Amino acid sequence: MKHGAAVAVIDARGTVTGWSEGAWRLTGRSAADVVGRPAAELLAEDIPDDTLAARTGTVALRHRDGHRVDLAVTACPVTGADGQSTGFVVTADPPGSLAAETFEQASMSMSVFDLQQRYLRVNDTACKVLGVPESALTGRFFPETVEETAYNQGFLRHLREVAETGRPVRYESFAGAPALNREHLWSIEMWPLRAASGELTGVGMAAFDNTEQYWARRRLALLNEATTAVGTTLDVVRTAEELVDILVPRYADFASVDLLDWVLGADEPPMMPAGGVVLHRIAHGSTREGDPGAAVRIGGIDDYPPDSPPARALREGRAVLSQAGEPEFVEWLEERNARSPEGRPYRQGIHSLIAVPLRARGTTLGVAVCVRMAHPDSYGPDDAVFAEELGSRAAVSIDNARRFARERTTALALQHSLLPRGLPGQAAVEVAHRYLPCGSLAGIGGDWFDVIPLSGGRVGLVVGDVVGHGIQSSATMGRLRTAVRTLADVDLPPDELLTHLDDLVTHLAADDSGEEVAELGATCLYAVYDPVSRHLSLAAAGHPAPAVVLPGGTAESVDMSAGPPLGVGGLPFEATELELPAGSVVALYTDGLIEDRDRELDGAADELRRALSAPASSLEALCDNVLKAVLPDQHSDDVALLLARTRALGADRVATWDVPPDPAEVAAFRQAVGEQLATWGLEEAAFITELVVSELVTNAIRYGEPPIQLRLIRDRALICEVSDASSTSPHLRRAHAYDEGGRGLLLVAQLTQRWGSRQTGRGKTIWAEQALPDI
Predict the structure, then answer these.
(1) DSSP assignment, residue 134?
(2) Per-residue pLDDT tens digits for 570-621
(3) Which H or E run contains 400?
(4) From CA 421, how far away is CA 417, in angstroms rounded?
(5) What are phi and psi of 45, to 5 degrees?
(6) What is the DSSP code (8-state) at residue 118?
(7) Helix (H, G, I), strand (E, B) or coil at 622
């Protein structure tokens, strides 16, 4: 630098002890020529008394070549450990020196130290940061001017390192300064100062204030952290809590999240009210121990006045800043204190507030409020930009959680509407059931169960599971359940019913999406229990086999073929027949009961059998015991459990006659039926029953094939059955005026509750049911 700052050190006797490169350049005299000589020998004329007294002014020096050099100088005393003056540090710049002006007016803090870490020069910015004038620092040892802190010790260590090694140093440090009200991030650079000979003469230092860049990086880091930390679950409350955890303590001393009422329900978003708004407090947090000073408890209702910052943020859709002293801030704080006087001590020192709306997909969900107390900085425009970005990201996560909750609620309501609400009355079995939706994020599945009354006092038991989760699976489950009921109504055997159901699933997959059939797959188990014969006939399509507990015995899994899942197509289903004593328990369930990724299938099946074998006071209690023993705390799939305890209709409730194929015998069977009804105390039903028997037996003799059998069953209804070896099913038809027949089945249909026919292994059975009179 052609015109650098000149520094000279003069001891108490007036002898020059230090001479900088700048002084050499101004005077042409090197340190070797000057050091050790009296300073007065360098003067061109005596120094005026007023300049000596002020220690500053213009001094005339004699250049080495003899011409006069006028310099503006400043003398700063150097004191020793005892406080006595040991000399002066004299600094000088040539008049109008651009270098001097640059040094003094630099926006960064700059200082010059000698090799003993004493101040030689300090610019205006450094004086403002340190809060003292240059005269209070020049010539003083650095540690004497500052407190003993880790930051200052590090600064001194780096000064010594540059002075000893001659190598520059650059580092960052987060620290405060005497004249600043908060800590700043300083980027500090130190470099060696050398004479023309290369000799080290001092250390230069420049400190850049990178605080704004630091906080910008911090805000960006918070946004990045929020990307992974907020929205880890599809739970609205937990998402709000995660947002508060991000905000406190790094961005706010207190933060709260309030949501509009509809966000917590299943309603569509209403129009934003023009006046005050009512919200629910979902989460809040504070840096202070104990009560965070919240005026509203978690779960409580918060009513923000129309002009309050939170209400404005909701209405205007942007972040609203408010500082202490502003009317709306004072009004907001007074309202908080009036609502919760006990929290007033925790609100002392609040000086800044920011309210940011939580908006996602163009819809406002609520508001987050951030408050600063201990944090010295007030919220500014950059904080508003950050808050809006963070609020937007959090709002998307909250909206995702809300949409998931809404879809889950809808799917659950749909599924419950499709499941049987009250099982129909029948005497074949006593039933108990449980349905538990999964708690995972996958959503509601397609598990279902059903109990279907069949003809002849029999009952159909069904459990099924549709692949996948969500509303689509629930809707498919409803279609399959309806199909099973329809097929069961025509009394198809279990294996034939599953064959028809398999065809239906294949058609559904092809018609709905054109995707592979397996994508719409399902499993199903269908069983039919006959209380007269005590036979259980069952078949499965890719479904777990049921467990059976005989009276006084232990539970065993039924040995049966599982068959292919529904939708595979082209493969047969096999039926299994069991004879069960009365009081046996049949357990049908979906795979969610025993299958889980965190446990072994065989172990869970063993637990199920042990739980079924344990004594229980009732079938309902047994259901609860099974779920408690087998299911983990968090099950990952839906669970359907159906328990059926079998009953038997004894010989005293069933009457059977073999019918010869002779129309003349019909009257005799009518009389026999009347006598049987009298034995059962059902004389009031005799007239209709005899008519039904007459019509059904006559039709079997006329159109059917022997052997023919008549059977009466006294169950919850009176059942009349006529079986023959023909597989031709009857049907109703309209008889013309002069037809001699065709009115029998129409008469049966009018006189009974319901009637129908079913195919059997030896032909068909025509049946009719009529209500029993109250006795």
Answers:
(1) G
(2) 788 999 999 999 999 999 999 888 887 666 777 888 899 999 999 999 999 9
(3) helix 381-418
(4) 8
(5) -155, 165
(6) B
(7) helix
Orientation of helix 619-630 relative to helix 601-613, angle to 10°: 150
Structure tokens given for 181: 């009200």
Please name which of 225, 276, 230, 281 lies closest in space to residue 256, comparing C-alpha atoms. 281
- pLDDT value at residue 515: 47
175, 153 in Cβ contact below 8 A?
no
Closest CA to 126 of 141, 147, 105, 144: 105
Task: Tokens for 20, please give them.
Answer: 């900088």
- In this structure, what token pair is assigned to residue 18? 């230090």
Give the sign of the dihedral formed by CA 647, CA 650, CA 653, CA 658: positive
Burial environment of residue 184 by CB neighbours within 10 A (0 to 12, 13 to 18, 19 or more): middle
Query: Phi first, then psi: what are they for 316, rounded to 5°?
Result: -90, -15
Token reading at 466: 């549709």
Is the CB of residue 138 less than 8 Å from the CB of residue 121? Answer: yes
Split at pLDDT 50, 70, 90, the class of 720 is very high
Residue length of the chain = 775
User: What contacts 218, CB < 8 A, 6 or more positions away?
Assistant: 250
Compute the distance between CA of residue 81 and CA of residue 635 in angstroms, rounded to an integer. 77
Secondary structure of residue 145 in the 3-state scheme: helix
- Which residue type does 509 have? A
Strand-pair category, 585-589 with 184-194: unpaired
Query: What is the token pair recorded at 199?
Result: 């000799």
The structure tokens listed for 711 are 């059977």
Determine the angle formed by the axes of helices 381-418 and 236-247, rounding to 10 degrees. Answer: 160
CA pair distance 442, 546, nearest whole angstrom: 26
pLDDT of residue 743: 63
SS (H, E, C) 521-569: CEEEEEEEEECCCCEEEEEEECCCCCEEECCCCCEEECCCCCCCCECCC
Maximum mean pLDDT: which of 120-134, 156-170, 209-223, 715-729: 156-170
The whole-angstrom separation of Cα 47 and Cα 45 is 6
pLDDT tier for residue 268 given thresholds of 50, 70 and 90: low
Contacts of 408 (CB under 8 A, 6+ apart): 443, 444
β-partners of residue 260 are 279
Q: Kindly state the helix (H) or strand (E) to which residue 496 belongs, with its residue range.
A: helix 494-512
Residue 461 β-bridge partners: 451, 527
Q: Does 52 have pLDDT greater than 80? A: yes
Q: Output the pLDDT for position 475.
A: 76
Q: 563-572, pLDDT tens digit by residue?
A: 899 887 778 8
- Total-model pTM: 0.58
Asked whether the CA dihedral 471, 472, 473, 477 is positive or negative, the reply is positive
Q: Which two tokens stand for residue 452?
A: 């279907």
Query: What is the Cα–Cα distance from 145 to 139, expressed in whole angstroms?
Result: 11
The CA R_g of the chain, rounded to the nearest whole Å, is 48
Question: Any idea which residue has 């006092």 for tokens?
Answer: 457
